[in-house]
Structures are given as structure tokens and as C-alpha cells.
Amino acid sequence: MVNYEQNITRVCDYINQNLDEELSLDILSEVSGFSKFHFHRIFSSYTGFSVIRYIRISRLKRASFRLVFKTDLKIIDISLEAGFESSEAFSRAFKREFGQTPSQFRKAPKWREWHIRSQTPAPQKDDNIDVKIVDFPNTKVAAFEHHGSLDLYYESSKKFMMWREMSKLSPVKTSLSFGIPYANPNEVEEQDFYFDFCGTVKEDVPHNSYGIKTKVIPAGRCAVLRHTGSYDYLTESINYLYKEWLPKTDFENLECRDFPVFFQFLNFIHDVNEHELLTDIYLPIK
Fold it and tell me: Is residue 124 part of a domain?
């Protein structure tokens, strides 16, 4: 029996892994295993996007991260990478999809609107999920507290990155990067949600205009699951730990410690494409 959803997921994965290559109907229909006469209709019925628009959104979404986090790149170079022959055509398409021109987005991105407009279908769940148990060491970190809507995540992320570059106290290339959500953003009011962006440090952080504080991620046992791909779907991986792994694990009397689930970011959206993001999810246990 043909698994339509699985086949369409395979096409979406192929698109995101080959954004710089030719993505013709013939190629994508072959990847899907469907006839090219029916493929585009099947794709749109499962994703809500035409094939052409899905490709455009995926390329423009990557371009949006380049605009904000790679300010040394010229807009014309970003437009060429996105497959546009001119910055004018790129600007029109970008504004049509995200409501701002590339230059406007670079200067003052409207992240809330961008999140709504850039959503693409969730990838199919991986059935081969590996969970490990590790002893996490006591870890001193510099922490930037993000308060409010998760939609403004990247705005706070950039501020923390700027501090790390400026201060040299927690260099991105030589220190570890963590994130600590203190609530489920889907279950609390925006004003009650906050998230710490963290980078390891050797010494306490001095007073600074960014509001960076010294905190500690406590030592203890943790269950660790590696999430691959967009941060938009971290919740699915977290839910797997709580709903499927924790109740069914072979370890007896396993309980959660009094510290929230937290993340280690192994790479960043400004350095790799979204499907290549690697995030280790730590569930503190005892």
C-alpha cells in the first residue's frame, strides 16, 4: 500500500536538502514515486502549498536568516542564492510572502508575522529515536533572559550573539550553547513565558548593559534525545520523551528532577540550513 504522507515528506526533505539545485516537476515527481500528472495535486492536498510555492517559501525562509544573522552578505548575493536573477525580483517575492522587503526585514524584522507566514508542514515522525542517559556536569553559564512571545525568539537570540561576540566571555566557537524554557509556550500567556539563552563561561559575568546574568545548570542525570531540523517542531521531540520514552523505559522508578527540560544547540541557523540544525534535548531525571 502506498504511504502518501511518507512519500510527500520525502519530497519535502529532498527540497530542503537541495535548495541550491534544480527542483523541477520531473525530478520531484520521481522522488515522490507519483506520476507527474498527479504529483502536484497530491502534494498540495497534503501540504496546503503548491510545489512551486513550497520551494519559494523554503528558499526565502533561508534567505531571511541570512538577512538578519549574516549582515556582511549583500542582499544581491542572498537573492542569487535564493534563485532570483535580480534583487528587485527577490524583493517583490520576499515582500509578497513575508510582508516586508528584504532591506526592511534586515533592519527591523517583524518576527510575529514572519512566523505565521513561514510555517511549512511538520516533518513525519521518526520511528527510530535514540535516547541516552548521561551524567550532566555542573555548568556555569552566561544567561540572557527572553521574556514574552516565542515568536520573538530570534530577536533575543541575535542580541545574545552580539554580546558573546562583543564581550569575548563566551565565544560561540569555543564554548557550549544552551537554551532553557521555563514553561511550555503553548500553555501559558505570552507575558508568563521566559527562556534563557545560555553560553558556558569560566568566570562570573560582570555587570553589563545587555542584562546578561551568571547562572548554573545543575549537575545530574539526564535523558538526551537529538532533534534534527527546525526549532518549530522541538515540542514534538519533547513530547516523545514525556509521553512515550519516560513511561516505557526499562529503568525502574525513573522520575523527573526539579529543573526544566533544556537544550544544547550544536549548530546555528546562520551557519547551516534549517534541516541541518542539531539540538540535543535534555530531560533532567533522578
Answer: no
End position of a domain, from candidates 94, 118, 142: 118
CATH number, position 189: 3.20.80.10
State the average pLDDT over residues 232-257.
86
Give the pLDDT confidence score for residue 1 in this predicted structure. 61
- For 38-60, the pLDDT digits (tens) are 998 999 998 889 999 999 999 99
DSSP 75-103: HHHHHHHTT-SSHHHHHHHHHHHHSS-HH
Any domain includes 202: yes
Q: Is residue 16 part of a domain?
A: yes
Rounded alpha-carbon distances, angstroms, from residue 283 to 19, 81, 142, 223: 34, 38, 21, 5
Taking only the tens place, the pLDDT of each residue in 72-118 is 999 999 999 999 999 999 999 999 999 999 999 999 999 999 999 99
* Gap between the Cα atoms of 196 and 198, Å rounded: 6
The tally of domains found in the chain comes to 2
Domain containing residue 10: 4-118
Could you tell me if 144 and 185 lie in one domain? yes
**pTM listed for this prediction:** 0.89
Q: What's the CA gap between 182 and 193, in Å, rounded?
A: 7
Beta-bridged to residue 256, according to DSSP, are 285
Rg of the chain's alpha carbons, rounded to an integer? 21
User: Which of 275, 277, 268, 282 minimizes the C-alpha distance to 68?
Assistant: 268
Last residue of a domain, one of 118, 140, 164: 118
Residue percentage of the chain with pLDDT more than 90: 78
